[in-house]
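Protein Record: Sequence and Backbone Structure Tokens
======================================================
Scope: a single protein chain, as residues and as a discrete description of its fold.
Tokens: labelled as protein backbone structure tokens, with as many entries as the chain has residues.
Position: the record begins directly beneath this header, with no further notes in between.
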Amino acid sequence: MENFVCGQPFALSALNPNDPTSGIKAAWDFEYRWQYYGLAVKNGFAIWDRFDGNHEGFTLRTGAPPEDWNVGINWTSQTPTDVTYLLKGGGLFQRTLQWFHQRVYFTHLPQEASHGYTLPVPNARDFEFKELTGFYEPFDIRGTAFIIYRYEDPYRSDDAWAYIPTLRRVRRISAEVKSDALLGTDAALDEFYGFSDHELEWNWKFLGFKDILMPMEPKDDYTHSYGPNGMVPDTGWQLRKAAVTQRIAKNPRHPMSSVVNFWDAEDWIALIHHDFDRKGKLWRMIQWEGMYTENAKNFAEINHGVEAMHWDHGYCVDVQNNRGTLWFGLGTGNPGVAPGHVEALYDINKLEQIHR
């Protein structure tokens, strides 16, 4: 990766199961896939799903994230107020969390060639990206927010902070916290996007290419779910060529011993991954659904012209505990960014501004 500037670091022809370096090469291809300035999710939902039940009488309405979080994005489209119709089939929905998310990349930006391929903000060269994930419903967690700084130096650990409303203070969080289940869901911060940890924290092996059937391009911009436990995407499915890798945790305290990732070989978004516990047994399966920006009907203002695939929906199934979490977003896209907004959004001192 020395002297890497931007773009896909390694061609598909450079990936070979017999090459011991191909695993980490595939990982870097995923890391530096085309995402414009990064993903934003205006109205995200995480739904706790307990199997062998039903959610009759369940309703799901959208809320509004705090203005301090989304003021820098030109949202003009509106999301439906009641989105209960998206969730069919079975499953006992115990709890719903609503969240906002924005990740912004600071370096390796081809659209910023005139600024040295970096975002025109102070010290941009020090960072790969910064991200904020904030929860605003239900009331008992409103204002809970996480900010993560990923540095350009791949050997440098992330800095991460959380604002906890019950404590009314900002606290630094450790790498171990980032690998734990997030707020009672079945996924961790380090599993966002299919993989959000450091490449150098894992040993990688490239297993080859495989054609798999995956959900793509949600109906009406929004994913519909059905099935016995409400965990099956009722949407368009496509046969996709996937680059398959296995990563083995170097840290013996990591809750997962290894993970098998399937990444789309065309645009490198995550398709599905399988987590294995410390005993080597299958623990969780997380399936992702992607959306092409140019096909967006709603929120075209943050999608059209980007020409990228981005996350839209995910199902996390805990096969050991017979439960799962539905993750989906309304108002997802890859917006342009205003430098002033970026500096304010990731200011640790402002995390305390959003109270319950």
Notes: Residues 13-353 form a domain with the outer membrane lipoprotein receptor (LolB), chain A fold (CATH 2.50.20.10). Residues 203 and 318 are 24 Å apart (CA to CA). Helices lie at 22-31, 67-70, 175-178, 339-345. The chain has a mean pLDDT of 92.
